[in-house]
Q: What sequence folds into this?
């Protein structure tokens, strides 16, 4: 995909993102693809249908990236955000994932599901979106009149020193195979992707579920589609083939005087879907009078998912205005949104941004985040369940210890409450 000028290339970059996101939003609404629901079904009912749909999406992403990267058709090493960076921020991945997992239970859905619910008429999710947007924005951008961000104020001093500087990129192929990273990525991608695919389709019930299969396939293919498009847009700059990012970095050398330079060159790198940081980007875009220099992949993705969900809700006549059932419901959603805002930025992604997009690159940080999100959400659900059943007898500590025993993370002898 070669363009003669930056404006045309950027326009395709943004509108192709919007088109893929539109399909993603409609299909996710139609199939009820929900990562929080996947964990809930598994923990509360032993139903793994939606979990297998999520795993199918991951498998499609991993196998697709493996093949496209081997063919030189995608760049998933120099990306935005930098999933394969050599600096492994493992504590931020784990802590952020846990916070996000807890938050998405309290707020009734992850970042992607929040957008789906907004499109379906859920006003509770509008509040969740706004809170996440404010926190995500100030986690990265300084407060007015200051050089401090929420991240630098609350986290940097004690999380950053724990980071590990690696001699290779942090994807499993590079870490395990060293100088033979290309071979390692094919081997590990094929092995992990294949095992995930086998597990997903091992269930006869899942194989018979059209919606679960469709949801998983479309989410995985949407992630692949975005990787492919953002990796292959080039500009013919006086005979030199340049990416959007490299062109913008040499703006004064190549761009005509009347061209409009984007505010961020980092956001022009190859990338795929993630939804927490883009909520903050969207807030900044709106607060600055919809300045087109601030328009990014993430903003277009967010808009596309909401509109796609809205279109399906209207077509299926499932559009419903929904508000908080009680003050406690409001409080849970508020706290959940706060935790997702902090956790999503700290972990550098959400259940789509890290657990599908990041996982597709085989980045260790993404895999840690995925596991932490599942653990955080599963523990929260178990604690809620025990407190509901045992009421006053179930303190938070007793419910937590019992939940950890249920997941075999503590010895059975430490159980504080009878299993239910």
A:
């Amino acid at each position: 995909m070669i363009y003669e000028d930056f404006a045309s290339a950027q326009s395709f970059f943004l509108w192709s993102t919007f088109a893929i996101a539109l399909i993603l939003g409609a299909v996710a609404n139609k199939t009820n693809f929900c990562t929080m629901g996947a964990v809930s079904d598994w923990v509360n009912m032993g139903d793994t249908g939606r979990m297998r749909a999520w795993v199918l999406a991951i498998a499609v992403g991993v196998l697709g990236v493996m093949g496209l990267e081997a063919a030189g058709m995608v760049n998933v090493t120099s990306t935005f955000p930098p999933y394969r960076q050599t600096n492994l921020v493992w504590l931020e991945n784990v802590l952020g994932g846990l916070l996000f997992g807890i938050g998405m239970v309290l707020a009734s859905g992850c970042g992607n599901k929040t957008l789906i619910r907004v499109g379906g008429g859920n006003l509770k999710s509008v509040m969740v979106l706004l809170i996440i947007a404010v926190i995500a924005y100030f986690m990265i951008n300084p407060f007015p009149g200051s050089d401090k961000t929420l991240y630098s104020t609350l986290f940097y001093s004690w999380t950053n020193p724990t980071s590990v500087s690696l001699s290779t990129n942090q994807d499993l192929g590079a870490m395990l195979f060293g100088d033979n990273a290309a071979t390692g990525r094919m081997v590990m991608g094929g092995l992990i992707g294949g095992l995930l695919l086998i597990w997903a389709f091992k269930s006869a019930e899942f194989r018979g579920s059209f919606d679960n299969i469709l949801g998983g396939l479309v989410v995985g293919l949407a992630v692949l589609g975005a990787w492919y498009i953002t990796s292959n847009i080039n500009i013919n700059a006086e005979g030199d083939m340049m990416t959007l990012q490299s062109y913008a970095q040499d703006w004064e050398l190549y761009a005509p005087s009347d061209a409009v330079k984007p505010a961020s060159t980092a956001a022009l790198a190859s990338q795929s879907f993630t939804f927490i940081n883009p909520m903050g980007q969207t807030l900044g875009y709106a607060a600055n009078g919809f300045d087109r220099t601030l328009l990014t992949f993430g903003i277009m993705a967010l808009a596309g998912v909401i509109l796609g969900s809205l279109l399906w809700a209207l077509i299926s006549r499932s559009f419903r205005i929904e508000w908080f059932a009680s003050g406690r419901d409001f409080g849970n959603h508020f706290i959940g949104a706060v935790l997702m805002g902090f956790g999503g930025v700290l972990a550098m992604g959400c259940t789509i941004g890290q657990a599908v997009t990041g996982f597709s690159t085989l980045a260790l940080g993404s895999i840690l985040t995925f596991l932490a999100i599942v653990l955080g959400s599963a523990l929260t659900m178990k604690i809620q369940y025990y407190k509901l059943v045992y009421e006053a007898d179930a303190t938070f500590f007793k419910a937590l210890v019992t939940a950890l025993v249920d997941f075999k993370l503590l010895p059975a002898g430490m159980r504080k409450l009878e299993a239910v």
